[in-house]
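To the structural biology subgroup,

Please find below the input and predicted structure for Phosphodiesterase, which we are adding to the shared reference set this quarter. The sequence is reproduced verbatim from the submission form. If anyone notices a discrepancy with their own records, reply to this email rather than editing the shared folder directly, so we keep one authoritative version.
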Amino acid sequence: MKNQNRRNFIQKLAVGGLMITPFKKIIASPVSVQLSNAPAKVNIRFGICADIHQDIMHDGEKRLQVFVDDMQKQKIDFIIQLGDFCRPYERNLPFLKIWEQFTGPRYLVIGNHDNDGGFSHDQVIAFWKAPFKYYSFDKNGYHFVVLNGNEHNPSPDRPVGYARFIGKEQQAWLEKDLQQTKLTTIIFCHQGLDNDMGGIENATQIRLILERANQDAGFKKVRLVFSGHHHLDYQNEINDIFYVQINSMSYQWLGDSYVKMRYNAEIDQKYPYIKYTVPYKDPIYTVAEIDSRGSFSLKGASTSFVGPSPIELGMPKHEMGYEVVPTISPRKINLNS
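Predicted structure (tokenized):
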């Protein structure tokens, strides 16, 4: 009976939840985009969090509450989470209610772990009350694009593991969307477009779409791409586009070689995957700001590790070559240069 109730719950989400679109600024359809003319740019501030992993962390609700309360206090223009948020289990409804406490626009990106447990993308966005799997919106004279990097690569030679691909239909939509806007554009995607170690499998192809959009526009239209997924802190610049990695709110995954109980036996038993991570003591997140002159800044955030650090455990570098740190670095970029 319990399994039947769960199936009924998910079926109701998949059928009824897609009718709910609380974001007034969201484009009405992900394939038919009607964009505004280029209004004057004004200052914009938006809060970004990534990879909270409610289904792994014992204190996910507390971490999200800190973020939402701070964003509400700062009167941010909108908030966005970059994926690996929560799976559509009924037990996660209180977690989702915390997210909904933010009274301004709220945007969501699908992460690979949000589909764990056999859930479809449609079930995830229905549970989240998100409008589409990928979409775009305009705000304060800027254009924002949310991509879904969790599509399946049809190639029989694709790498094993989670789907991390952007298919032809979404590519065509992205090209059309970028053609139709005159605004400086900012991209959000869960997986990185700037690396080939766990990032989007066809990242080079997607970067070419962005770079060609800049060539066709005659100016640097696409300037920033934000991603999560990797739980790292870095920035790359490729052909005049900046790719900014936003660190996890919660932890870095260390795996079987560095297992360590970080809290206590009760938490370890109830949340068995925490011991494979190095958790961050406090939630880290950031605020991005762009002023009317096109000057972009990212607020820094830093905390400490819970228990021994990766260096203390003999793991000084992540496999991608970056140091594991409980930090989001402050950054400044002139988008018009």
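Summary notes: Helices lie at 2-16, 60-74, 93-99, 121-128, 168-180, 203-217, 265-270. The chain is about 25% helix and 20% strand.

Regards,
Lab coordination
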